[in-house]
Recover the amino acids of this structure.
């Protein structure tokens, strides 16, 4: 890989005694759109939290944009996060602020732009997500898809280098899903971002991403382009990509240290 | 599953939580920056939690003043000293009832609302979103609410006292027919600025800090679930009420 902007090396993570991630390594190339996929509860969101420095690994290293995030001080971590936009699963808009103020918040906090410049930038971002005219609305009057688009505008308002998406299409209707999908591609290409998407929506990801990582039972079981993974013969990959009930990935809850449900070939 | 040492020893858990709350207070105070944003959000919160508590404080103050003068006149009449009612009402109000009752009402009205609001922000990932935007939620969410509480309670206590005196005037002079001159002169000559009035002010400042700290602390560390938010609001009222009464005794023993 030419120029990885995010590099995970032999990362392990435990919650109490339960192994969530076991010896996971990834290189995410600058400018690409990458999906981290896998069944629910497998540790996909944990990877996003490790990348954003909310969690620290038990073992291994995580390098983001040249910084080893687990060793950064509180202040350095906040500095590093200015280059990372995050779109959380439910959008997480501030419910007491209007759409305009939600998007303007990072600008007001981290820049000394004039009110006029802030307005200009916020309206431009709203236009790019197709929501110009909603600036005075409160978040509770938006639909799920609109909330996600406002959250996307807020996530990229500081022109970050990396955007992390946590299940950006969950709970959306097919039209809203396609809209968000197209927006992620458009934003990524226009702003030269690197996008990391956590999802279990195989169909949508096949149309969007450049590279996929598949996790199962705490391990990375496969990686590659969506096309190559569609033809992967590994039983666990085949089970996940085609949504089969029977296969090596168990849908039953695994107690404590058992990370042996799947033996990656 | 690992068990934290404070979970093993229930006796030590409150001490550990007090220490944790102290660290949280230190984090809040060390994040104070003298800038326009903090001033504006503190003023906004002062309006939301202070000004909006005004009506309930005024109504309660008025009736506390009425009932206090009713009881006082009833007791003092037995000794032929009913003209001392304003002195008794004033002393009890400025020294004890004003700060304590206002703090208890404030904990129920504003403390719960702050704890629930912050808890809900946590449950809906707004606090997490803020951290991910490199914005310190302790500075932006907790601090303005804490400062607003600190500022609001002494002002609300002043309003409570004013309306309680009004209630006493209405009952003593209007209903019981006490001489207004005697009422006001006894009040003026018997209430000392330093001991009575300022003693109550200091108490209300401490209670304001205490109730707001408890509310923002329990809200901030609430479990991000519906039950967690409910527990945070209940604990805010219970802990605030108990600690206000304990601190009242401690402060009174020093101020008396």
């Amino acid at each position: 890989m030419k120029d990885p902007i995010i590099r995970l090396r032999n990362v392990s993570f435990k919650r109490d005694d339960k192994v969530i991630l076991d010896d996971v390594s990834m290189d995410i190339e600058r400018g690409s759109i990458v999906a981290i996929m896998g069944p629910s509860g497998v540790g996909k969101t944990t990877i996003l939290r490790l990348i954003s420095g909310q969690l620290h690994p038990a073992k291994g290293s995580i390098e983001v944009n040249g910084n080893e995030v687990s060793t950064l001080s509180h202040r350095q971590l906040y500095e590093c996060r200015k280059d990372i936009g995050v779109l959380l699963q439910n959008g997480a808009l501030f419910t007491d602020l209007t759409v305009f103020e939600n998007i303007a918040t990072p600008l007001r906090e981290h820049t000394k732009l004039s009110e006029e410049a802030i307005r200009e930038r916020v309206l431009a971002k709203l236009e790019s997500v197709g929501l110009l005219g909603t600036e005075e609305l409160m978040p509770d009057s938006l639909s799920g898809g609109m909330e996600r688009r406002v959250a996307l505008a807020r996530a990229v308002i500081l022109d970050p280098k990396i955007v992390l998406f946590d299940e950006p299409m969950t709970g959306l209707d097919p039209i809203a899903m396609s809209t968000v999908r197209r927006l992620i591609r458009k934003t990524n290409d226009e702003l030269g971002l690197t996008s990391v998407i956590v999802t279990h929506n195989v169909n949508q990801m096949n149309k969007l991403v450049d590279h996929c990582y598949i996790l199962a039972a705490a391990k990375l079981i496969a990686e590659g382009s969506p096309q190559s993974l569609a033809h992967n013969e590994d039983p666990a990959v085949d089970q996940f990509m085609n949504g089969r009930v029977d296969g090596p990935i168990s849908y039953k809850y695994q107690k404590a240290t058992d990370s042996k449900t799947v033996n990656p070939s | 599953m690992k068990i934290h040492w404070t979970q093993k020893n229930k006796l030590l858990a409150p001490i550990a939580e007090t220490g944790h709350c102290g660290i949280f207070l230190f984090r809040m105070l060390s994040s104070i920056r003298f800038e326009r944003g903090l001033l504006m959000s503190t003023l906004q919160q002062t309006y939301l939690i202070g000004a909006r508590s005004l009506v309930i404080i005024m109504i309660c103050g008025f009736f506390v003043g009425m009932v206090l003068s009713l009881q006082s006149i009833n007791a003092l009449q037995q000794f032929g000293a009913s003209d001392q009612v304003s002195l008794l009402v004033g002393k009890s109000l400025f020294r004890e009832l004003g700060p304590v009752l206002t703090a208890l009402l404030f904990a129920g009205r504003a403390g719960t609302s702050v704890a629930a609001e912050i808890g809900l922000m946590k449950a809906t990932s707004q606090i997490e979103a803020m951290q991910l935007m490199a914005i310190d939620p302790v500075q932006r969410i907790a601090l303005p609410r804490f400062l607003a509480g600190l500022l609001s309670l002494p002002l609300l206590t002043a309003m409570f006292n004013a309306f309680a005196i009004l209630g006493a005037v209405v009952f003593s002079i209007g209903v019981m027919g006490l001489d207004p001159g005697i009422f006001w002169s006894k009040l003026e000559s018997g209430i000392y600025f330093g001991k009575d009035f300022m003693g109550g002010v200091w108490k209300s400042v401490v209670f304001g800090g205490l109730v707001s700290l408890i509310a923002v602390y329990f809200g901030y560390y609430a479990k991000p679930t519906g039950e967690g938010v409910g527990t945070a609001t209940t604990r805010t009222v219970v802990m605030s009420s108990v600690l206000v009464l304990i601190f009242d005794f401690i402060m009174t023993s020093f101020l008396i």
In short: DSSP finds nine helices and ten strands in chain A. The CA atoms of residues 217 and 261 of chain A lie 6 Å apart. Residues 258-265 of chain A have pLDDT under 50 and may be disordered.
